[in-house]
Amino acid sequence: MNGKTEVVRLLLVDTPETKHPAKPVQPFGLEASNFAKATLTRKQVGIEIDISERDNYGRLLAYLWIGDKMFNEMLLEKALARVAYIYPPNTKYVDQFRSIQEKAQKQALGIWSLENYSSEEGFETDGQTAEGPSNESKTPGTGSCKIKGNISSSGEKIYHVSGSQHYDITKAEEMFCTEEEAEAAGYRASKR
Predict the structure, then answer these.
(1) What total number of domains does the chain contain?
(2) What is the predicted pLDDT for the residue at 106?
(3) Tally of CA atoms within 13 A in the half-sphere of 116 that contains its CB
(4) Last residue of a domain, one of 129, 155, 172
(5) Is position 2 within any domain?
(6) Catalytic site residues?
């Protein structure tokens, strides 16, 4: 884009994992990945930005267009993704996406063909969801969510991941299962 390679995060959709370092390949993950490669490789695409242009990782937040068809919608129509990561103000198509998802759910297509696999919490794989354990506790010091959220004396919200310099001495005021979850709650990553 403008002579620069960009990493894009598709807005409002989540597909099953295929490359997560701590999780196995999830059902329909390879199908979603293969569909994306077949549809997008060496194709000219259109990028539609909602309100916020980038996430905290510098990724371009976008709705991706192939001609007159939106790729985010195509994933939902083929039941290879679920509606997720609904963070205002980037919600332009959320109602439209939910309607598409409901049709796929009623027809028990793709991710919706496996009982209790996909839900608002993520993709269920042996007691784990794509966004963290299904029985997680967000009470500080309990459960299996390991990212510590702390508010500094100056009021700044900072999260610490296991292995970071101050993780062991940080008193958690909130616990998170993913960095994205911490950032959505207004925390930033520790610099050390």
Answers:
(1) 2
(2) 95
(3) 5
(4) 129
(5) no
(6) 9, 17, 59
Range of the domain at 22: 8-129
Peptide bond into 140 cis (omega under 30): no
Domain of 106, CATH number, reads: 2.40.50.90
Residues whose CB falls within 8 Å of the CB of residue 79, separated by 6 or more in sequence, listed in order:
28, 104, 107, 109, 110, 111, 112, 113
Closest of 148, 116, 122 to residue 134, by C-alpha: 122
Q: Is residue 3 part of a domain?
A: no
**DSSP state letter for 114:** S
pTM of the shown model: 0.65
104/154 same-domain check: no
To which residue do tokens 């370092």 refer?
Answer: 21
Give the tokens for residue 177: 């299962």
**What one-letter code names the amino acid at 35?**
F
pLDDT (tens digit per residue) in 71-116:
999 999 999 999 999 988 999 999 999 999 999 999 999 999 998 8
Q: How far apart are CA 154 and CA 143, in angstroms?
A: 28
Instruction: Judge contact between 145 and 136, C-beta under 8 A.
Output: yes
* 102 shares a domain with 47: yes
